[in-house]
C-alpha cells in the first residue's frame, strides 16, 4: 500500500498505529473524531482499517465477550505488522 501523508492533516502511520485503540474505544472522543475524519478521507488507510476491523470482528466472534490480555494484543499487532511488509 502506498501512503502519502502529505495529503492529510493526520499522519497515516499514526492513524494506522492507533486503529486498535479506535476499534476498542480506548481513545478520547477528540482522537476518535480525528481518526474517523482521516479514515473518511484516506482510501489507503480505510482499506487497511477494513482489514483490521475484520480481524477484530473474527476475534470477537471466536472469543465472545472476553478481552484479550494487553500482551497478546501487542504480539498480534506486531505479527500483523510483520505480515504486511
Structure description:
It is a single chain. Mean pLDDT is 78; it is low at 1-5. The chain is globular. The protein has one domain (8-84). It has five helices and no strands. It is mainly alpha-helical and 85 residues long.
Helix segment tally: 5
For the record, give the distance between the C-alpha atoms at the N and C termini, rounded to a whole number: 10 Å
> What global shape is seen?
globular
- Amount of helix: over 70%
Outline of the structure:
This protein has five helices and no strands. It is mostly helical and 85 residues long. The chain has one domain.
Summarize this structure as a short list of keywords or feature phrases:
85 residues; mainly alpha; 5 helices; 71% helix; globular
List the helices and strands and how they pair.
Layout: H1 12-17, H2 19-23, H3 29-41, H4 43-63, H5 70-84
Helix pairs in contact: 3-4
Amino acid at each position: 500500500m502506498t501512503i502519502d501523508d502529505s495529503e492529510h492533516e493526520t499522519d497515516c502511520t499514526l492513524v494506522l498505529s492507533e486503529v486498535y485503540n479506535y476499534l476498542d474505544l480506548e481513545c478520547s472522543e477528540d482522537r476518535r473524531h480525528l481518526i474517523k475524519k482521516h479514515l473518511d478521507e484516506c482510501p489507503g488507510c480505510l482499506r487497511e482499517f477494513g482489514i483490521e476491523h475484520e480481524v477484530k470482528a473474527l476475534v470477537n466472534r471466536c472469543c465472545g465477550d472476553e478481552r484479550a490480555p494487553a500482551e497478546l494484543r501487542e504480539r498480534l499487532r506486531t505479527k500483523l505488522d510483520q505480515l504486511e511488509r
